[in-house]
Design brief:
- Helix content is 33%, strand content 21%.
- The chain is α/β, with parallel strands linked by helices and 760 residues long.
- Among the domains are: 2-88, 2-Layer Sandwich (Alpha-Beta Plaits), CATH 3.30.70.100; 101-185, DHBP synthase; 190-370, DHBP synthase; 535-704, ATPase, nucleotide binding domain (Nucleotidyltransferase, domain 5).
- The strands form five sheets. Strands 6-13-7-8-12-9-11-10-14-15 form a ten-stranded mixed β-sheet, with helices on both faces. The protein has a seven-stranded mixed β-sheet with strand order 26-27-23-22-21-28-29, with helices on both faces.
- The model has no long low-confidence stretch (mean pLDDT 95).
- The structure holds zinc ion (ZN) (2 copies) and fe (iii) ion.
């Protein structure tokens, strides 16, 4: 008996080889019908003997191409017709745009083999791609995803490319960026002034310049990189000087996994992450005595390492045989990555000695993603290229909400039904360039997702650019969300949990409900509300923002808090080194409450400890002191010795007291205990006191689920030991994996809280 069915498929099914896959599935079984792209995904009509149609339907999601992500299948019966074959029909437009655009994908093995094959017509062609690989998100102007709506629209395909594109049996069937030497984008080489340099082989020229220690700006998928030979100290130093990026670690790209293993300790999980089609930067423990210049990641236990993901990267390594290239975002420190050729030449002028641009336009900037394996799972530190715009799946339907995130490491989030679209890392909204990127992202995401938010969620901090932007919008409801509540909601959402939990939100800075600077918070929270059940005791933040840049100020604050004004007589290196005048100024500021708000920040506690033990007095980038303190702790021989904290109650809240901690640290400093050991004892003590507090809250609130969120939990040492302790104590512990624990994950939590506020 013949039957005919309509199957509507939603998810990431466009631009990932889904239609040729279905075509094969149908023709192999002699079935007839058609498939077309729709704004919602694809629609298949399939006709033939009932048993074969059944088999086809069952097989559909099982063998789907690697990049496809089926999120919904709706099946209905249709009357049979006279179809004699299976056809691939054109795209429909008109309905609500629901199809998902694929993230950008690293070059696949087949394309790589062709790239290096002298007999192939695309031998050494820098823009080779197919339906299984290549640019997607960063070349899309609008959807449905078809060539005219991408930045490939300006490259008419040659006859050979067109034949591949139209042949359902070809790997390049409907590969929208399909191109070759004859018809596609080309590389160029520019000098330091942005002038085109005539040469037959821009790659060879770029390689020669890199070899001689020059800085080359290379246009990639989501923006320009600044590249230098990572084994050349002088070159790395000059990159840092010119980019005004002093301490912050730089990522390195290496040719293959074998090379990565020469530089880093790599376990199974990290190996899989490095070679995944997302090709993120993976933070991995550095081996000793490697050829990478020390200036690449000074003071760090880890090295950020990644593998080539565009044909151009492969060509550079094939021609240059570099052990490793520094590949850092093409920008001036803290600004967003440059994407346009002329913009790059203007903004990177004075930094780059040469440029390797191309004429395929990048429509939306997208940095490299950064991940790190901690406590048996891979954690997102910076979610961007390769992952965005794939949605996170929620457990409940949400109305359409735009959440605008925080100030630092900003991301935005748009929700639609059970999908949350977290944007790529936008950056620190403190500069005009980043704020422009924020606007672009808000607009671009709304356009390609066709989401028109009814509600805008924002952080309560009145000074944040994202908050000011939200408050200036008209026509949408507004929902202010407390910073640490958003962190915990983000962790709950990622783990699909409902109801009430204990939430530890530890970070540097967040606007507190009492006007103080929060950052070491124990909440009892649901999506709808939270109660501040505990926090680190308040100390002064002398100079506000200046105290964040200068950890020595926190050293003074904690020592004065613990020992009183006379702490200068403690006789430790910190008090010898610090100028009496400077420290007296701090004391006066704190006493008179001049520009010295109170803070419960855990990030500042790390800063204070790092300063007092002489590790870092001034930071070059956010969280530097905390990262160096963690690296020091990891270098100490493992043992369970731990510093004491106090735990006391004031009113209805628990407070973690730091006086016993600083007394013990000063004792150890007088005994000349190595900083590594001090750091180890600090981390152990912190994990101890947090698990003790968790125990108290469990008894008080009868809760055994705990969520850990906030940037402090990017500290692998702390996260690993706290999770261990809590699990051993019978807690169900939830942490971040797909969403950053830091402020990059804030927007997701804001959306969930806002949705819940609307319902109540
Ligand atoms: Zn490919
Ligand atoms: Zn061509
Ligand atoms: Fe935060």
């Amino acid at each position: 008996m013949q039957i005919r069915r309509e199957i509507r498929v939603t998810g990431i099914v466009q631009g990932v080889g889904f239609r040729p896959y279905v075509f094969r599935l149908a023709t192999e079984r002699g079935l007839t019908g058609n498939i077309s792209n729709t704004p919602a995904g694809v629609t298949i009509e399939i006709q033939g003997p009932a048993a074969l149609v059944e088999e086809f339907s069952a097989q559909l999601s099982i063998d789907a191409p690697p990049l496809a992500r089926i999120m919904g299948l709706a099946i209905q019966d249709l009357p049979c017709n006279g179809d004699a074959e299976f056809r691939i029909a054109g795209s429909h437009t008109g309905e609500a745009v629901r199809a998902l655009i694929s993230p950008d994908v690293a070059i696949c093995d087949e394309c790589l083999a062709e790239l290096l094959d002298p007999a192939d017509r695309r031998h050494l062609y820098p823009f080779i791609n197919c339906t299984n690989c290549g640019p997607r998100f960063t070349i899309v102007r609008n959807i449905p995803y078809d060539r005219p709506r991408t930045s490939m629209a300006v490259f008419p395909m040659c006859e050979e490319c067109r034949a591949e594109y139209e042949n359902p049996r070809d790997r390049r069937f409907h590969a929208q960026p399909n191109a070759c030497w004859k018809c596609g984008p080309q590389l160029e080489l520019w000098d330091s002034q942005g002038q085109n340099v005539e040469c037959s082989d821009p790659v060879a020229e770029a390689v020669a310049r890199l070899r001689s220690g020059e800085i080359v700006a290379i246009k990639g998928l989501g923006g320009f990189h600044l590249a230098v030979d990572a084994t050349n100290s002088a070159a790395v130093d000059s990159l840092r000087r010119r980019k005004h990026r002093f301490g912050k670690p730089l990522a390195v790209m290496v040719q293959d996994l074998k090379m990565a293993e020469a530089f880093c300790e790599i376990e199974q999980q990290a190996r899989a992450a490095l070679t995944s089609h997302q090709r993120p930067i993976v933070l991995l423990p550095k081996k000793r005595g490697i050829a990478i210049a020390d200036a690449v990641a000074p003071g760090q236990n880890d090295l950020g390492i990644f593998l080539p993901y565009t044909p151009v990267h492969h060509l550079l390594f094939a021609a240059g045989q570099f052990p490793a290239l520094v590949m850092t975002s093409g920008n001036l420190s803290e600004e967003p990555i440059a994407i346009d050729n002329r913009e790059a030449a203007a903004r990177l002028s004075g930094i780059a000695d040469a440029y390797l641009p191309h004429n395929r336009e990048i429509l939306l900037r997208c940095d490299d993603s950064v991940i790190k394996p901690i406590a048996g799972r891979v954690r997102q530190f910076r979610r961007a290229r390769g992952y965005v715009p794939a949605p996170l799946e929620l457990h409940n339907d949400l109305p359409s909400i735009l959440a605008v995130g925080g100030e630092l490491k900003n991301t935005i989030c748009l929700t639609r039904g059970r999908e949350a679209f977290l944007s790529q890392h936008i950056g620190d909204l403190e500069n005009a360039e980043s704020f422009k990127f924020f606007h672009e992202a808000v607009e671009h995401f709304q356009r390609i997702l066709e989401i028109h938010p009814e509600t805008i969620a924002y952080d309560l901090h009145p000074g944040y650019f994202s908050t000011k932007w939200a408050l200036a919008q008209t026509g949408a409801r507004l929902a202010g969300v407390q910073h640490h509540h958003a962190h915990i909601a983000s962790c709950m959402a990622e783990n699909g949990i409902e109801g009430k939990v204990i939430g530890f939100a530890l970070d540097g800075t967040g606007y507190g409900s009492d006007g103080a600077v929060w950052g070491g918070e124990a909440l009892v929270a649901s999506y709808a509300s939270f109660e501040r059940a505990g926090h680190f005791e308040y100390v002064s933040l002398p100079g506000s923002a200046a105290a964040i840049r200068e950890p020595w100020r926190m050293g003074v604050s904690y020592l004065a808090h613990t020992f009183g004004k006379d702490f200068l007589g403690l006789g430790i290196p910190f008090t010898h080194k610090i100028e009496r005048k400077k420290s007296e100024t701090m004391l006066r500021m704190m006493e008179r409450r001049v520009n010295s708000p109170l803070t419960s920040s855990c990030g500042r506690l790390f800063d204070g400890v790092a300063a007092v033990i002489g590790l870092r007095e001034v930071v070059d980038y956010e969280a530097q002191a905390a990262m160096e303190l963690e690296s020091a702790g990891l270098a100490a021989p493992k043992d369970a010795s731990a510093y004491p904290f106090s735990l006391f109650r004031e009113g209805n809240t628990w407070q973690i007291g730091v006086r016993p901690l600083f007394e013990a640290i000063v004792d150890d400093l007088r005994k000349h205990t190595p900083v590594e050991t001090i750091s180890l004892r600090f981390h152990n003590g912190l994990a101890d006191i947090l698990s003790r507090l968790a125990g108290c809250l469990r008894d008080e609130f009868s809760l055994r689920r705990i969520c850990l969120s906030g940037g402090t939990f990017q500290n692998g040492f702390l996260l690993t030991s706290l999770v261990q302790k809590l699990e051993a104590d019978g807690f169900e512990v939830f942490t971040h994996t797909q969403v950053p624990a830091g402020d990059g994950g804030l927007s997701l939590g804001q959306a969930l809280v806002a949705s819940s506020l609307l319902q109540n």
